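dumping this here before i forget
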Amino acid sequence: SEEDPARPLNTLELSGIAAPPVAARLSRNEQETMLKNGVTPLEVGPGETVQIVRAVSTYTRNAVGATDISMLDMTTIRTLDYTCKAVKERVDLRFPREKLSARTPAKVRSEVLDVLRNLETLEILEEVTANAEGVIAERDLQDPNRLNIKIPADVVNGLHVLAARVDLLL
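structure:
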């Protein structure tokens, strides 16, 4: 487990799992094939510990069948869940018996933005200021007791791939 929802689980040790024999260990190509198909591969790390290569979900294609990595990483899903929980807790704390008047949407929106800024400070979300205009709190058109909130969430992605070029200098 990881307290920070945006922090990748790469190299996290899974205690209690025995390392497979060397001949049965996955190659890097096999690991990549698994990742592209929504399977989280494991590998053997220092001291024969079993570790997560990269925690992924089975969401690899969208509804029309096109390749879609938007929800591939478990950290994306965990970050969105964490954001929802943080916003709900703040609204529950600040508005436990609130009336829904013409002033309420602006007050709620202000609190939501504060939560998002705090999550940005923690490097869970990013670009909050750039996306602030998209934070909308408005009364529902059909239910007079309901306030709808739209929250654009730009999650902090994990560093999973490092590409480098080495130039020979003579």
